[in-house]
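Onboarding guide, step 5: your first structure request.
Type a short instruction followed by the sequence, for example:

Predict the 3D structure of this protein.
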Amino acid sequence: MKKFLILSILLFFVLCLSVLWAKTTNWNEKEPSTSALSSKKKTLSRSKLEAATLILHKKSNGSVAPNYHYECVIKVKKDSVDVTVCRGYDGEEVYHEGRAISPTEYEQFLNHLAAQNIRTASVKAYTSGGHVSYIKVLKDDEVVFDGSEDYNLTIAKGNLSDAFMEMLSGSMEEAVNDPMRLIDPLHNEE
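The system replies with C-alpha cells like these:
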C-alpha cells in the first residue's frame, strides 16, 4: 500500500509538471507536433523569408530542474528585433530588450538566413534531451515554415542562431549567449 501511494504521488507530480510546461512555452503559438515536423519536406526559401511578417527563433535548455530552466525567444520583424528570456516553467520574464533595425540590416539578416539553406528533413532520432532550438516563420497569422534544429532541420552552413546573432545589440547577445547569468544568481559567483 505504501509503495502504491508513493508511486501515485510521483505520477501525479510528473503529470503536473508536464501540464505546466505545456501551458507556458512563451511561444504564443502551438509548437510543431511530431506529425507536423515529420510531414513533407520543406525549404526555407527566399520568397518565404521576404513574405514573412515575423520570424521567431526560440531556444531553451530543455528538461532541467525548474530553477535552472530558461527559454529565450528572438522575434524579428521588418523594422525591429526583440529578445525575451524567461526563467522556469512558469515563464517568469527576467529579460526583455528590443531595438529598431534598418531596412539594410533586415535585408542582410534575410540574406544570411537564406544562405544557411535551411530545410526540413526526415525526423531525426531525438537524442538531445537538453537544448532545443526552433525557428518559425509567419506571414500574418499563417505559419509558412517551422522546425527544430535538434529534431528535423538540416542546415548547410552554420547553426540556426548564427543569422539572428548579427541582429542583436551587445547586451541582447550576452543575454542569448549566457541566459544562466539572468536565471541563477550563483552562476556569476566563481
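Each response can be followed by summary notes, for example: The two ends are 47 Å apart (CA to CA).
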